[in-house]
UniProtKB/TrEMBL annotation:
GO molecular function, one term: NAD binding
Residues the record lists as binding substrate: R96, R106, R134, D223
Enzyme class: oxidoreductase
Family of this protein: Belongs to the isocitrate and isopropylmalate dehydrogenases family. LeuB type 1 subfamily.
InterPro entries attached to this UniProt entry: IsoCit/isopropylmalate_DH_CS, IsoPropMal-DH-like_dom, Isopropylmalate_DH
Oligomer status and interactors: Homodimer.
Record-marked site positions (Important for catalysis): Y141, K191
Function, in words: Catalyzes the oxidation of 3-carboxy-2-hydroxy-4-methylpentanoate (3-isopropylmalate) to 3-carboxy-4-methyl-2-oxopentanoate. The product decarboxylates to 4-methyl-2 oxopentanoate.
Stated name of the protein: 3-isopropylmalate dehydrogenase
Pathway: Amino-acid biosynthesis; L-leucine biosynthesis; L-leucine from 3-methyl-2-oxobutanoate: step 3/4
Biological source species: Halalkalibacter hemicellulosilyticusJCM 9152
Amino-acid positions noted as binding Mg(2+) in the UniProt annotation, renumbered to this chain: D223, D247, D251
Amino acid sequence: MEKRIAILPGDGIGPEVCEAAVQVLKEIEKLYDHRFEYAYGEIGGSSIDKFGTPLTEETLATCRQCDAVLLGAVGGPKWDQLPGDQRPEKGLLGLRKELQLFANLRPVTIFDALAESSPLKDDIIQGVDVMIVRELTGGLYFGEPRERREVAGDTVAIDTLQYSRSEIERIVRKGFELARERRKLLTSVDKANVLESSRLWREVVDEVAKDYPDVDYSHMLVDNAAMQLVRNPRQFDVMVTENMFGDILSDEASMITGSLGMLPSSSLSAEGPGLFEPIHGSAPDIAGQNSANPLATLSSIALMLAYSFSMQDEANALQDAINQVLNDGYRTADLTNERETALSTTEMTKKVIDALRTKVQ
């Protein structure tokens, strides 16, 4: 069965890592006798430059007609002077909202070959395997009103934090479902000692938990969760939380691995295409130099194969190939101080393809 994939390269190193991903997907087509169709679209700064907006209706239509979406990265200093509602990041937020991508999944695992790069001690990080489940379409990032006012001669900025019971329930259920598939342990993160939205969040978690009696769950305040992630990350299996808390905690957790450039993410809807992207950003300082690390994007492809296409064998083979390349000592510039031996983007992609071909054949 043919699967249609929207490719949104975006800005900075986005086009380079997306090209790497397409090469790997084409290899998977050959090895497993699949057929993927690729539909390209603009988003972020590149869309602003061409169409005057970070997200066009044409790009949205393309994504809606596909089975999955691969995004490279958006943003860069070129567009920093634009108003907030016209900046590249608005395109990504709009895409998440329009596709109803309510669940952002960020797996945090330790690559044994890169363990020495972690700022934490070996005895703390060994065996870390955490799935952070972040609500993606509500909270402060989307609440209204969002404005500035002049009050008594002073400027006041207003952001609104709002969550409905239904929004909380659907992300909490996703967390419980993932925990049931893993180690049956869920930690719900909130700020219930201060925020009314978190008190509602905690109530909903307690209600939903009754449907998952086989999953052990607990509540944890977000400031404690931030500390516990660096103190003892192995205590966590699945962490579920609201939008802003999830944004901050997942970036903190990514540094446990020693490299922000190694981690993938997936954003899922109740129905419709999922969005898959690396979390490393657009890195405009190295754009066009063929030095970007493609591995986070390739791991995002593995998530796409698993979650959107139910191709678990293919996903496992690709992730095993990435691990093999790292175990063999191959590194891009962001992973080594020995720049003369660092592989380019295209060279690292070829190493992964070679390892994948060997494993499958």
